[in-house]
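To: structure subgroup
Subject: Chain for Friday's discussion

All,

I'm putting the inputs and outputs inline so they're searchable in the archive.
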Amino acid sequence: MSMSEENELIQQRKAKKMLLWFGMISLAMSFAGLTSAYVVSKERADWLEDLVLPTAFNWSLLVIVLSSITLEWAKRTLKNGQRTNVMTLLVITWSLGAVFVGLQYLGFSQIYNDFGYAFTGPTSSIAYTFIFLIVMLHLAHIVAAMIALSVVIYNHYKQRYDFGKSLGVELAALFWHFVDGLWLYLFFFFYFVR
């Protein structure tokens, strides 16, 4: 590989990472706007005073933190050249993402069945409608991260990642950690701002 080709690859890596960072900053601003609207709406007369979070959200917090740990472990294991362990860790991470999605569904079910609040309609509450909306939007991004991780799993299976050639893994891990961190923010926001 010539020096100019190597420089071009370095520039492409930087550009792809920068684009991902711009996208993540935009998403963070969107969620900041939604949580700001939640805070402003707390002043409404019909706001629930005894807002309770579903217990499934507590478990999803643990699962999402574990998924970040396993993905980071996979990324570091790949850099050390231990390919067989990487696949196991990637699949575990993806599975934890699926468990997270299931726990979010259980949380929605608990709000609807146990607390008696729907997303919209006569049995809705503005507080729980905000929670439904924000969590569903976050779930859409978790699904996007799971799709990115599926591509990484496929590419790793096809042995497309090698020492120094792991940009796909790095980008997917960066986005995964971002949506995980976003859930940490949302969970603690809903926990403390009721």
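Points worth raising on Friday:
The CA atoms of residues 33 and 164 lie 38 Å apart.
The chain has five helices and no strands.

D.
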